[in-house]
Amino acid sequence: MLLNNNVTEFILLGLTQDPLKKKIIFVIFLLSYLGIMMGNMLIIATIKTSRTLESSPMYFFLFYLSLSDACLSTCIGPKMIMDALLKNATISFSECIFQVFSVHYFGCLEIFILIIMAVDRYVAICKPLHYTTIMNHRVCSILVAVAWVGSCVHSLAQIFLALSLPFCGPNVIDHYFCDLQPLLKLACADTHMVNLLLVSNSGAICTVSFVILMFSYVIILHSLRKHSAEGRKKALSTCISHITVVIMFFAPCIFIYTRPPTTFPMDKTVAVFYTIVTPLFNPLIYTLRNAEVKNAMKTLWSKSLISGDKR
């Protein structure tokens, strides 16, 4: 329920107000967004067209990680790119609330998928004889469904917090997208309790998930001592890829969502890492270090060329 809400739209200051820098940002982020969509859509298409990859739990989860990456960037990227061409970028109140919901939804989904992928690697490496039994298709589907539902619950909580705040002016958001932290500064009410709820929600999810993930990978890496040299090398390569993604995504999220309602000049730059940089590098990390994915992509490319020649 809205309380004394006189604000119908917000002004987004973006990353900068300098006209030349805005043009540079437009080019950089347009290319980045195109790279994100091409890279993640390529992984999605490769997994869906490869029977070997689609039947593997690890790639089943990678499919949803790429999907969440693409969706997260789409919630922010296109508008941010268009806003870079405008002198005054605005967003309606309803669009702002929807952006808060979608960013937290797909961001939280990515967190849950990363946790599921860590569980999958733990079972594959520490309990290889029971892997196919434990991580069967039904279990994998249930885990992904729980991730979707959990993300929805988290996002609805964010929306409830946002709609509980009265906005009566000013309406200038010092950010390039709508999020609860910059919105708290604009509310004409005491936001201390809301910030505590924000930290206990988003902050706790980010911090606890990061600790769980790092602890699980420590256990996995410790157990690799019992494997053969070849098996250890392959498992280590996979784990290093996952750990790289985890650090790139969680470090900026923890910095943003686990502190009092104060903003710093670097906040917008830090947010770029989990909204743009991580989704851009995820496809590279998972393909360049993974022979199975690269081979499947070559097969997909060959089929595309053959189909093109037949036409």
From TrEMBL:
UniProt-listed SUPFAM superfamilies: Family A G protein-coupled receptor-like
Keywords per UniProt: Cell membrane, G-protein coupled receptor, Membrane, Olfaction, Receptor, Sensory transduction, Transducer, Transmembrane, Transmembrane helix
Boundaries of every G-protein coupled receptors family 1 profile domain copy: 39-286
InterPro entries: GPCR_Rhodpsn, GPCR_Rhodpsn_7TM, Olfact_rcpt, Olfactory_Receptors
Bilayer disposition of the protein: Multi-pass membrane protein
UniProt KW Cytoplasm keyword: no
Transmembrane segments: 24-47, 59-81, 101-119, 139-161, 202-224, 236-257, 269-288
Primary site of residence: membrane
Cell compartment(s), UniProt: Cell membrane; Membrane
UniProt KW Endoplasmic reticulum keyword: no
PANTHER family: OLFACTORY RECEPTOR
Task performed by this protein: Putative odorant or sperm cell receptor.
Recorded family membership: Belongs to the G-protein coupled receptor 1 family.
Name assigned to this protein: Olfactory receptor
Organism, as annotated: Erinaceus europaeus (Western European hedgehog)
Recorded name of the encoding gene: LOC132534034
